[in-house]
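Researcher: Please predict.
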Amino acid sequence: MAIAKPCPHSSSQVMTSRREENPIPIKQQFRKRMKRKKNKRRRRRVKKKAETKSQPCRFPNIPEEIIVEILSRLSLNSLSRLRCVSKQWYSLVFDIIPKVTGRNMVLVQSISRSGTPTFHSIDEESHETQVRRPWEKSIPCLSKKESIPPIFFGSCNGLVLLNITDDLFLWNPITSYFKKVLSYNRLADTSYSVVSGLCYDSLSDEYKAVVGLSHDSPLYGGEFVKVGSFKSKNWRMVGLPYAVGTVQSGPVINGSLHWYGLKKNSGRFLPGPQIFYFNPDLNTFKKIPMPEPKHKEEGDMIFGLGVLDGCLSLVRHDNPSNYKCHRVEILTRKEYGMKKSWTSLFIISNLTLRHWDTLEPLCYTKNGEALMKVSSYHNGNTMRAYNVNDSLHREISNYIDAIKYEESLIAPTGYDWEEEELRGEATYTDFWYGTLVKYKKIGNGSWKIFEERDFEQQNSEEEDELETDEE
């Protein structure tokens, strides 16, 4: 019986010959194996994640009342992170947040060795914590401005208003909320001196920027105050009978922004300072009764306004004729609408301040010290903690800018300036001495006037005297 011989052109021989003719490179084989393993691991993770989500987060043998009590002792910063654990945690945290009072914090800005701005916060225990820069998400509108240190324009309800060239941004350091809300072309002109603040209009449900600008030349408007509305995107002029160049910014208390400055054309070489506040609902200023001056003829000198225990506080010197000061008094206003509501808190000695220096009370620490922001022409800017009992003080940090804020989880909506700018449609209206001017930002970052007309003024832009708060 004859044995059949294998066909010389069988399939196995053909496949072998093909592999020999076109061998798969070793690197390609390795990549394919690694890709298969990677896909396998990814499928396992997706399956495990789906199983975890399907199972509710439970707390075995722990009553919900105890869990709520534990969570209520945490800071808002910790609660904001715990909301992302599960739906059950989100529901618990959502009910707890209104009961938690935000801590008083101080946001400090410094410059790193590479020249970029860095931020850190100081809490009521004087602990410093690094804060991530708000534009770490590579926002397109800041790609060319990352090395420019922002200016703190004010804080309100846990939000900080930042200024970079001619742009304004709202930032919540706790939630990392960060959004461009408005622009104003005159802010990019460094020949203006600027005083600013942030406040909330409860009637229109929007935040507003209050900016006082002062220029040596009347051709640039001289001295004026503008209020920028983030939703309506306009800048309106507000009358203020005080020299804007002498005005210093202050805190927001009871929803009102507080400033102080010197009266225009008072006829005195050193006119006494006056504290006034801005009502965001009415867009008007009102002055506050001042404490009785210790120096009847020359009055007192104010070195700064701040907040202590939730009340308006001021730092004063009772001898303005002496340009050097080694002793200041801290007063607080316990009740609004009362002429004699100013109360002396404590006296700080063993320091040297000059007329152009500032000393701003920020908050009390848990060990009883008063945290203060000191800006000195000769000694630079420092954060100091003053012991109110023995007048001793210690330096905490150096800074180029610092501002006090309260922790909150507020993230306002309805501001679409950033989206309009990306589409090339960002415009704002400037009411300028009886003229309505509309500006539009063009491709190279400059501004173009595309509408200009007269308008009838509803309120006087110049006032001779402010009403006194006598509520």
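Model: The CA atoms of residues 75 and 102 lie 7 Å apart.
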